Amino acid sequence: MFRCTLSVIRRLRPILVPYVNGTTVTCNETRSLSTIMNRQHTLNNIGLSRPALIQNKQILDICNRITPLSVRTVTKFSLKRGKRKTVKAAVRRFLRLDWGGWIRTKVGRNKKIWKKSQPQRRRLRQHVFCNATQSTLLDKMVTKFWKKPKYYVDDPYAPYHTREEFHITRKKPTNH
Q1: What's the burial of 102, exposed, middle or buried (CB within 10 Å: 0-12/13-18/19+)?
Q2: What is the Cα–Cα distance from 141 to 76, expressed in whole angstroms?
Q3: Would you state the pLDDT for residue 3?
Q4: Contacts by residues 130-133 (CB-CB < 8 Å, ≥ 24 positions apart)
Q5: Given strand 94-96, what is the order of strands in its sheet?
Q6: CA torsion sign, 114 to 118 to 123 to 126?
Q7: I need a labelling partner for 35 at 20 to 30 A (CA). Which of 71, 99, 109, 132 fits?
């Protein structure tokens, strides 16, 4: 929520700051909340009244219209080595197939199982493919280690790691 508010405040240009004597000052170079706070601190030191952010109608209107957005953050530079990091939630919830597709389990498969019928439980145990947009996003969320093929003993997903029906990912030659 705070991140959304800061991005909105950065886009506010110009901000009008009212003073006691009736004049207004336009601040065109205001870019962040910290700049506004520093400017208020400076104005207090030189004897001018303190313009509060709470009294600014422009900011209040925008804050009332803000809706929180979901954020999928990737650490682009780690503090130790400066390398990109994998989003662990992506690796836990999804599986990348060798040909580049991603699969996941169906939503709510472990919730209120006692209510669900046997065919519904069977359907919920199945996996579904992610679409192209989701696969691209997941590829950005993981490092190259997770994109390499992994080989497991008795892998239940072994038949799905090849995609012979698609000409780009086909490994065996076609018999014409």
Answers
A1: buried
A2: 10
A3: 55
A4: 130/94, 130/101, 130/102, 130/103, 130/104
A5: 94-96, 102-105, 127-129
A6: positive
A7: 71
User: Reduced to 3 states, what is the DSSP secondary structure of residue 118?
Assistant: helix
Pick 132 or 10 by higher pLDDT: 132
pLDDT digit string, tens, across residues 89-137:
999 999 999 999 999 999 999 999 999 999 999 999 999 999 999 999 9
List CB contacts of 134: < 8 A, sequence separation 6 or more.
102
What is the 8-class DSSP label of residue 144?
H
Cα atoms found within 13 Å of the Cα of residue 163, Cβ hemisphere only: 10
Question: Vertex 85, ends 107 and 94: CA angle to 5°?
Answer: 20
15 close to 36: Cβ distance less than 8 angstroms: yes
The Cα-based distances of 13 to 10, 36, 52, 106 in angstroms read: 8, 12, 17, 45
User: Measured between alpha carbons, how far is 87 from 73 in angstroms, rounded to an integer?
Assistant: 8
Output the DSSP codes for 34-78: HHHHHHHHHHHHTT-----GGG-HHHHHHHHH----------SS-
Residue from 15, 97, 100, 103 nearest 53 by CA: 15
